[in-house]
Every structure is written in structure tokens, then in C-alpha cells.
Amino acid sequence: QVQLVESGGGLVQAGGSLRLSCAASGSIFRINAMGWYRQAPGKQRELVAGISSGGNTNYADSVKGRFTISRDNAKNTWYLQMNSLKPEDTAVYYCNAEVGTNPWRLANYWGQGTQVTVSS
Questions:
Q1: Residue 2: which of 68, 97, 116 has the closest Cα?
Q2: What are the Cα distances from residue 61, in Å, to 46, 47, 64?
Q3: Which residues contact 41 (CB under 8 A, 6 or more apart)?
Q4: Angle 80-3-47 (CA atoms, 0-180°, nearest 5)?
Q5: In angstroms, what CA-CA distances link 83 with 38, 42, 71, 113?
Q6: For residues 50 and 34, what is the distance between their CA atoms, to the nearest angstrom?
Q7: What would the mean pLDDT of 94-104 be, rounded to a whole number?
């Protein structure tokens, strides 16, 4: 079994910063892609940022230049540094990873979500 645990959400004023962390634990053979998604009230869940096993990153247009995704493979942990936050960044943020529990199988896992609220 694999668990993803997020931390670092909270309330911040517009223009401020937050850093989210996601730690994976359990029966992990390897982790491929890691990512962060968010879901605002009444909206669909959307990809915010992703990072491949090789370190290639991709971002939603709305966060480019403000958010940075990174990973620490030794700790099975990845991060989302969020700067210059805007009220429209308010959402529940979920971490996601493609995890192999053995050499032949990959499965998708989600964290429980952490609330990020940006006040104007």
C-alpha cells in the first residue's frame, strides 16, 4: 500500500508565498511522474505542475513564473513553491504520483488534499 501525505497549506495574503510538500510512503519500488493538482469550488480538478522522473517540468499557464515544482528522490518527496499568490489560486491542492510497487506495475495515487486560501 502507498500513501501520499501533503502538508504546507494555509491562509496567506495576496502576493505572499507558500510551500507545499508531499511525502510518499509504503511499499514503493519506484516513483515516476509526480504532480500537483488543484480544485476550486465549482470547478474541475486541474493540473498545476508536474515533474518527470528525469526532472522535466511542466506548468499550467496560469502559474508559470510563479510556482516551482521540485522533487527529492531520496526522500520520496516533492514540493510546490508558490510565490506571488493570487486570490484565484485559492483551492484544495492535491499531490499525485505514478508509483510502482514492483518492477512490472505502475499505479496512480492521490494525497488527501490541502487547502490553500489567498485573501485579497
A1: 97
A2: 11, 10, 5
A3: none
A4: 40
A5: 16, 24, 17, 19
A6: 6
A7: 94
Write the DSSP symbol of residue 29. Answer: S
- Find out whether 45 and 110 touch, Cβ atoms under 8 Å: no
56-74: pLDDT as tens digits: 999 999 999 999 999 999 9
Rounded Cα distance, 62 and 106, in Å = 30
Helix (H), strand (E) at residue 94:
strand 91-102
Pairing of strands 30-39, 46-51: antiparallel
Are the C-beta atoms of residues 4 and 97 closer than 8 Å to each other? Answer: yes
Residue type for position 83: N
Tally of CB atoms within 10 A around 69: 22
Residue 73 near residue 31, CB atoms below 8 Å: yes
